[in-house]
Amino acid sequence: LDDPGDSKESTIERPMMTVEEASEWLDVPRETIMRAVRNGKLPGGKIGNTYRIPREDLVEFFKPSVAGTPG
Hints:
Layout: H1 8-13, E1 16-18, H2 19-26, H3 30-38, E2 45-47, E3 50-54, H4 55-61
Antiparallel strand pairs: 1-3, 2-3
Helix pairs in contact: 2-3
């Protein structure tokens, strides 16, 4: 069986993403995502040593807004 982490497409389909996966997928700096999680603007939780963020929340947070900025 293929490892689900082997392709970018499988990362997109995961319900939860790491900060690193989200950063690469959305082409935004890692710190942008971490700042949003720390400020409570983006839901996320720490599992072990890694933050996980629901993919649906990432999509919603980074949708283009009227002002053109995230969130």
